[in-house]
Specification:
15% strand, 4 strands, globular, two-stranded parallel sheet, alpha+beta, two-stranded antiparallel ribbon
Length: 95
């Protein structure tokens, strides 16, 4: 599956909303729209180097400005999905 390259963004949680990263090894980056700090997982950083980052609220704001009939498509890489699944499995084992 190819992702249209004219509108690729990494959409990430803001640090102020999620003080601890969900995925171990995540690093902070900066939202390209508002400048807030956001979390970017290792798999995402590796899979999409150089892709601009948006926090969730800025992404939501941009989606609202799309022309009528146009939709935003959201993709998650297989590596990112495995990363999230492993994090959830590890949390469940600890509890």
């Amino acid at each position: 599956m190819s992702i249209p390259d004219e509108s690729i963004y990494i959409v990430s949680m803001r640090v102020r909303d999620w003080p601890k990263p969900s995925v171990p090894g995540s690093a902070t980056n900066t939202c390209g729209a508002c400048g807030d700090e956001v979390w970017v997982s290792p798999a995402t950083a590796k899979s999409l180097p150089g892709v601009p980052v948006l926090c969730v609220p800025c992404f939501q704001s941009q989606v609202k400005t799309l022309p009528a009939g146009e939709k935003a498509e959201i993709y998650i890489t297989a590596k990112s999905l495995r990363e999230v699944a492993q994090t959830l499995i590890n949390r469940r084992r600890r509890n």
